[in-house]
Amino acid sequence: MTETPGNKVLWLEFLKIFTRALVQINLYRPDHPQVKQALQDGEALLRRIHSENSGDFSLTMAAGSLLANGLPLITTDKLPNSIKNLFARFRVQTITFVQGAAGSDLLALCQMQAHKGDGAAFLRERGITKITLNVDVYAKVDPSAAQAPNLPAADETTGTAAPAPQAPAAPEERIAEQIYTQGLETALSTVVSRATENPEERKAIMDLLTAKFKEQLATEVERAVETVRREKKKVENDMVRTESVMTSMAEGVVVVDKNGNILVMNPQAEAISGKPLAELSGKKISDLHQSENHVISLAKQLSSEDKADVSNEIVKTGSAELAETVKKATAVIQNEDGKIVGSVSIPTDVVKLKQMEQLQKDFIANMTHELRSPLTSIKAALEILGHEASKPGDPSRSILNTAIRNTERLNSIITDILDFSKLQSGKLIFHQENTPADEITREAVESMKAWATSKGVALSARTELQIPYVYADKRRTVQVLINLISNAIKFTPQGGSIEVSADAGRDALANFVFFSVRDTGCGIKKEDQSKIFEKFVQIASGEKVGGTGLGLAITKAMVIMQGGKITLDSEPGRGSTFRVSLPVYKGQIDQPVFEQVTASAPEDKSWWKKLIGI
User: Fold this and answer.
1) Does 35 share its domain with 111?
2) What percent of the chain has pLDDT over 70?
3) What sign does the CA torsion over 400, 403, 407, 413 have?
4) Among 163, 275, 307, 454, which is most exposed with the fewest C-beta within 10 angstroms?
5) Does 568 or 314 have the greater pLDDT score?
6) Residue where a domain terminates, one of 359, 392, 421
7) Over 70: is that where the pLDDT of 344 sits?
8) Confidence class of residue 169 from pLDDT cuts 50, 70 and 90?
9) pLDDT tens-digit readout, 212-225
10) CB contact at 8 A, 456 and 486
11) Looking at residues 186-201, what average pLDDT do you find?
12) The pLDDT value given to residue 138
């Protein structure tokens, strides 16, 4: 294969990533993000190398250099120690990466460096076939063994070799059988007797061998005991650390016997129980007075065991609701080995408050659903009565019209509350798709035309020709424009005008379509413009109007959750212009937007979450 600059760069880059994976697998677990990233990068580079070279990829250690596909890549003195150790320890001459080698194969190769046996066998046991090892084999050959052995003569009639005579057992075999059946000291004497016939030399050799054996045995025993000693210290440290964490979580201390009877209590524990030690001594810890106000977690087996494993079951007493509140108020902190190293807690009253807030949210959501059904029926009945009213000037017709308007207003308030509760609970999900901008504008204007006419306000729509499609949830985007038009109608006097337009962005903003709602109303002061998008805020020339004050807060959240932006340009007495920008459709895949928003930036709350108080 011909070496090219591109090939060499790829080979060196793979060598760098392979080295990083070898080092990190010794520091982290296989599922650690850094290890997984290194393996993914290595797999990607192998695919590129195999694709560009149309064959397998091999690394060979020979002649003081590392060869890649048989071509010199780097000298051994410049190689990282992890690479050199891998080749030297397993006597590997060549590592071949077959086409299709994946990150899992690289992981097994990296884990092999901690193996004490044969490297090739290690890979075979794990079913690795895409990475192969060519191992150097060194053998010492006895020159006499190279000579042809004396073979038995062939039978002249059959042409087959005659059976060889049975050779007597060699002296070495007899000694081996003899030593195998003897004790250690006798076996040593047997071996020494073969070395010399001098009794004094035999005794000296025996003493030397015995001392050497004892020294070696003591070393091995010490090594084994040291391992046990370290494991014992590790367990003791884990116990001390866990006990320290648990004792730091409380001031009160209660001492019980193996049956759970109270022996000793400090003053803090007496304050918690509400009774003195003299009254509780000898009683079961689970029988504390007012147990519904106490939460007790007690190991099922209290006695210490030095043989059998104790049960990890826990006995709990007290109110289930209170126990759950206390449990949710504390989180255990563990290290990478799963050992308890600390805890984090919040006051239980805060947990209780959060539970009450959740109940409140659920109540609001259920209440608005329950109110909407009868309200819809009432509105339909009123509209039927209004159509049947005979005379236009009939007072009853005016009363019915007033009732219908109030039901519409109440329905709008319920809709705002329902949308707000959906935002808080994370159930307001957007399905963005390819949507015509002119249809959004036209539908919003047609929905509000009747109300604008009844107030004497001119409402018109203008859409730029050949405007791009937007990537938006059509129903929610129409609701955004309806909210803005509704506000404009409220604050535009009779004889005024409202224009709703849609224009394509220019230059740097070419990837957005802009919807504008421009009115000739009272306008908004500069100092108040930053407040109007907050929840429960209504500001217009210092006056308050009907409504929940949630409309613009929900509107802004809906725009931002679709990847857009909303701005305001207003001056007192000159009207207001709200501009909503939404992204142009470019073949995006339809998917729930709320999940995208919550998945991004887990540590820093999104703007719209801060807006609605989540």
Assistant:
1) yes
2) 68
3) positive
4) 307
5) 568
6) 421
7) yes
8) very low
9) 888 888 988 988 88
10) no
11) 80
12) 42
Domain membership of residue 146 (yes or no) is no
Averaged pLDDT of the chain: 77
Structure tokens given for 240: 């001390």
- Contact, 122 vs 115, CB < 8 A? yes
Question: Could you tell me if 110 and 55 lie in one domain?
Answer: yes
The torsion angle over the Cα atoms of residues 364, 365, 371 and 373, rounded to 10 degrees, is: 180
Looking at the fold, whether 78 and 196 belong to one and the same domain comes out as no
Check which CATH number belongs to the domain holding 528 and give it. 3.30.565.10
Indicate the burial class of 94 (C-beta count within 10 angstroms; 0-12, 13-18, 19 or more).
middle
SS3 (DSSP) at 8: helix
| 271 and 372 fall within a common domain | no
15-26 pLDDT per residue, tens: 999 999 999 888
Residue 306: per-residue pLDDT: 61
165-179, 227-241, 484-498, 555-569: least confident range: 165-179
Give the pLDDT confidence score for residue 410 in this predicted structure. Answer: 72
Retrieve residue 566's tokens: 């909303």
Pairing of strands 458-463, 497-504: parallel
Q: Could you count the other beta carbons within 10 Å of the beta carbon of residue 100?
A: 12
Range of the domain at 238: 172-247
3-class secondary-structure state, position 270? helix
pLDDT tens readout for residues 513-530 = 999 999 999 888 888 887
440: its two tokens = 């959004």
Residues 498 and 450 in one domain: yes
Asked whether residue 325 is assigned to any structural domain, the reply reads no
In a domain, 328, yes or no: no
**Structural domain contains residue 327:** no
State the pLDDT confidence band at 576, using cuts at 50, 70 and 90.
very high
Nearest to 258 by CA among 236, 284, 281, 240: 284
| Residue 500: pLDDT over 90 | yes
Number of domains in the chain: 5
Of residues 466, 460, 467, the one with CA closest to residue 517: 460
Strand 92-97 relative to strand 57-62, pairing: antiparallel
Q: Show the tokens assigned to 149.
A: 């052995």
How far apart are alpha carbons 177 and 465 in whole angstroms?
104
Per the CB < 8 A criterion, the answer to whether 94 and 59 are in contact is yes
Same-domain status, 467 and 570: yes
- Same domain? For 28 and 106 the reply is yes
Give the tokens for residue 177: 């059988």
Domain check: are 256 and 240 in the same one?
Answer: no
Residue 391: give its domain's CATH number: 1.10.287.130
Q: Got the DSSP string for 541-565?
A: TTB--SS-S-HHHHHHHHHHHTT-E
- What is the radius of gyration, based on Cα positions, of the chain? 43
CA–CA gap between residue 589 and residue 592 (Å, rounded): 10
